[in-house]
Each structure stands twice: as structure tokens, then as C-alpha cells.
Design goal:
The protein has one helix and 28 strands. With 325 residues, the protein is mainly beta. The strands form seven sheets. Strands 1-28-27-26 form a four-stranded antiparallel β-sheet, with no helix packed on it.
Length: 325
């Protein structure tokens, strides 16, 4: 009986592995020797085939050529870099430094420091608004900084707690902001630069990562307590679905081509959630990674998912590149 049970377990594992390989195919691994500590968020230059990685624990921003599979020069002199933004025009890299409370702007070709903006304590997530030539940075006990591409701070929008991930509408004026300390989503009108409403989260808390499906009016919230993906209707703020996910998530991305979500979790898994109807979501893959690998980046243009894997158990840090199937 015991042998039969083991055989059944192995069969289930093989089936699960086959399903996972048909969902995400690991096509390349780029080692990052010498990089230690926690790795935070990333940004991509798809035309230049470059990925920029905030190596928070290493106080550097690492760069790789993801087509050639090689490492590029390191940006040193950072202080717990957390958020990274790349703008092809005017070819600039913006790095939010949590420890020093600075936003540093670098030349995108030679990685030379061009400007430093201070007074942004615990500078964290950063996003770009390329249409309006602006960069947004979450910082402090509750503010969203608005900065133009020349490094001029235009405004600061107050919030009810430190902001984590946030998303900007491309065809509207709203910004949706995770405020985990307040158990809420703040909705900002970026024309008037103010919070217009707030959506309370009742089903789960510790809401850190976020993704947006603007076409179908859906906002995806990754929560850690308990580990759930919440799906909100952006017309009403109501929760329309929730799915169990792995623990300690820090990034979630929406793949509009396949109507899927990729969720990287520090527990040591990549979860893939499929939407089959407007509000029916199912976890279709539970890909083992490595403990602490909770940050990722999905590029629709390159159609690649990049996973940051920190150094641990004698294994070097690395970037794993997946091709969605």
C-alpha cells in the first residue's frame, strides 16, 4: 500500500511538472556573482535588450543584456535601491533609494549620475507617466511624489500610510495605490493631484503588489495576510473574486495576450493565474523557484518574465528568464 501511495504521489508530481512546463518555460539564467542580500524591483529597456535590477541589499543597480545573456556595468553608490524606472526618452534611469531618501537620475548610456533629489524618506516604488513626462515615487509615511523628467519635483500627494505598488491608467486620469497600513486602495486623480476616493479591503490585508487590466476594469491586488489575490472592479471598488496564492508575494503582472497573471512569491514559487471568464480565476501553475525570490518583471513587448533570485544557501544570485507558453 505504501509503495502504491508513493507511486500515486509521484504521478501527481509529474503531472504538475508537465503543466508548469507548459505554462512557463525557463529559457535562460544569468548569474549575478558578488550580489548579496535582498533584490527589489526591476525595469526594462526592451529596445536596448537591457534589464535594470534594484539590488537593495547590495546597494547597487545591476544591469544585464537579456538577449546576449551577459552582465553589464553595475551602478554603484546607491543606498538600498527599491524602485527603478527607465525612460527611453530622454534615455534616463530613475532609482528610488530607501535608506538615503533620494531619487537618483542616471544617464541611460554610460550610467553617469546626473541629478539627486532628496527629502524622499523611504523612497520605494516608482512608476512612469511617459505621456506627461513624469515619474511618480511612493515615499515617507504617506506621500506620492510627482517629478518631471528633468528632476524637478512638481507636487506631493498625501496618503493615509506608506504607499506600496501603484498603477496608472493609460486611458484615464486615475492612479490606484496600495496603502497596506490603512488596509486600503487610494484612488488618485492625477490631474487634480489628490485622492478622490478610498476602497477598503475586507477579505485580506498586507496588500503590497498590484496589477491593472484597464480594458476589463479589473485591479489585481496581491495580499500576504492571508495569501490571496483579490480582484476588484475599478468602476465600483468592489471585490469580484479572490484566489489562494503562495506566501510573501511582492510582484504581480497581468499578461493581456493570454489573460493571465504572474505572481512571484518569497515562499519560493511563481504562481500563474488564468482568467477563463470575466470573474473566474484559477491557479494553473505553481512553479518552484527559491526562497526569497519574490520580485519579478513581465515585459509584454519582449513577452518574457524575469525573476530575481537572491543569493542563498551558497548559490549565487541570478535572473531567470521565462517564456510564457
Amino acid at each position: 500500500m505504501r509503495s502504491l501511495a508513493l507511486l500515486l504521489l509521484c504521478s501527481v508530481a509529474l503531472c504538475a511538472g508537465a503543466q508548469e512546463s507548459n505554462t512557463l518555460k525557463l529559457i535562460k539564467t544569468i548569474p549575478l556573482p558578488g550580489v548579496s542580500g535582498r533584490i527589489d524591483h526591476m525595469a526594462a529597456d526592451t529596445q536596448g535588450h537591457r534589464l535594470f535590477i534594484a539590488a537593495l541589499g547590495n546597494n547597487t543597480v545591476e544591469a544585464i543584456d537579456f538577449e546576449a545573456g551577459k552582465r553589464l556595468p553595475t551602478i554603484s553608490g546607491c543606498s538600498e535601491p527599491q524602485g527603478v524606472v527607465f525612460l527611453s526618452k530622454p534615455n534616463r534611469i530613475f532609482v528610488a533609494n530607501g535608506s538615503s531618501g533620494e531619487l537618483k537620475i542616471y544617464d541611460g548610456e554610460k550610467f553617469q549620475l546626473l541629478k539627486t533629489i532628496g527629502s524622499l524618506s523611504d523612497a520605494d516604488n516608482a512608476r512612469s507617466d511617459a505621456t506627461n513626462n513624469r515619474v511618480y515615487v511612493g515615499f515617507g509615511s504617506g506621500e506620492l511624489g510627482v517629478i518631471d523628467t528633468n528632476g524637478v519635483q512638481l507636487a506631493s500627494i498625501p496618503l493615509d500610510g506608506h504607499p506600496e505598488s501603484f498603477q496608472l491608467e493609460q486611458n484615464g486620469n486615475r492612479i490606484f495605490v496600495n496603502v497596506p497600513g490603512d488596509h486600503s486602495i487610494a484612488v488618485i486623480d492625477r490631474v487634480h493631484q489628490s485622492v478622490v476616493t478610498k476602497w477598503r479591503l475586507e477579505e485580506a490585508h498586507s496588500n503590497f503588489p498590484m496589477a491593472l487590466d484597464e480594458t476589463n476594469h479589473r485591479l489585481f491586488i496581491g495580499c500576504r495576510s492571508p495569501a490571496r489575490l483579490l480582484v476588484l472592479d475599478t468602476t465600483s471598488g468592489k471585490t469580484t473574486a479572490q484566489v489562494e496564492i503562495s506566501g510573501d508575494t511582492d510582484d504581480v503582472f497581468y499578461d493581456a495576450k493570454r489573460n493571465r497573471l504572474y505572481i512571484s512569491c518569497g515562499e519560493g514559487f511563481l504562481d500563474v493565474i488564468q482568467c477563463s471568464t470575466s470573474d473566474h480565476y484559477e491557479r494553473i501553475a505553481h512553479e518552484p523557484t527559491r526562497g526569497g525570490a519574490r520580485t519579478s518583471f513581465y515585459s509584454p513587448d519582449a513577452d518574457r518574465l524575469y525573476l530575481a533570485v537572491p543569493k542563498s544557501w551558497g548559490q549565487d544570485a541570478e535572473i531567470r528568464i521565462y517564456q510564457p507558453q
